[in-house]
Amino acid sequence: MLTLTFLVTTVINLYVKVLLLRIWMQWARCDFYNPFSQFVVKITQPVIGPLRRVIPAIGPLDTASLLLAYVLNVLLFVLVFALQSRMFIFDPVFLYFGLVALVKAAGVLVFWIIIIRSLMSWISQGRNPVDYVLLQLTEPLMAPFRRIIPAMGGIDFSAMAVILILYLLNYLGMDLIPGWTQL
Question: Are 95 and 122 a contacting pair, CB within 8 Å?
Answer without folding.
Answer: no
